């Protein structure tokens, strides 16, 4: 895992995505390879999501994906992410209450577009 995902907000976002994928995959009866927790499709998406999270222009102040003004997922993976979140979201509260609570709090945070933040910083200088 990239060092960007080892601390704080990004790590929590990554852990939330992994938990949601686990709930989705097992809840849909996907067949997982021996010794794996995710099927091939879900594992492939997990790799894609990790790469997108590592490259997030917001970095540690990243908003939740639903509140983000930048759509970094391509259309097909974005739709799959919506499907996963629609299914796993309500189940997260019982299975991962702390991740659910922190995700809900992160959702309530206001976030400024990276370009607007950069402009306002340069205006102050």
Sequence of secondary-structure elements:
HHHHH
Q: Sum up the overall morphology in one term.
A: globular
Estimate nothing, just give the exact number of structural domains.
1
Low-confidence stretches: none
What's the pLDDT, averaged over the residues? 82
Strand content: under 5%
Binned, the helix content reads 55-70%
Alpha-carbon Rg, integer: 16 Å
Quaternary organization: single chain
Let me know the largest β-sheet.
none
Compute the number of strand runs: 0
What is the rounded distance between the termini? Answer: 35 Å
Description:
- By secondary structure, this protein is an all-alpha fold.
- The protein has one domain (3-124).
- 63% of the residues lie in helices and 0% in strands.
- The protein has helices at 8-27, 40-54, 75-95, 97-108, 114-124.
- Helix 1 (8-27) runs antiparallel to helix 2 (40-54).
- The protein is globular, with a radius of gyration of 16 Å.
- The model has no long low-confidence stretch (mean pLDDT 82).
């Amino acid at each position: 895992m990239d060092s960007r995902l080892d601390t704080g907000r990004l790590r929590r976002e990554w852990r939330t995505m992994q938990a949601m994928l686990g709930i989705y995959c097992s809840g849909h009866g996907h067949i997982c390879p021996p010794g794996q927790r995710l099927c091939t499709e879900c594992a492939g998406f997990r790799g894609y999501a990790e790469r997108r999270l590592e490259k997030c222009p917001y970095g540690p102040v990243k908003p939740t994906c639903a509140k983000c003004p930048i759509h970094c997922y391509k259309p097909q993976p974005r739709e799959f992410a919506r499907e996963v979140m629609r299914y796993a979201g309500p189940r997260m509260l019982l299975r991962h209450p702390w991740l659910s609570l922190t995700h809900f709090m992160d959702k309530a945070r206001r976030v400024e577009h990276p370009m607007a933040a950069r402009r306002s910083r340069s205006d102050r200088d």
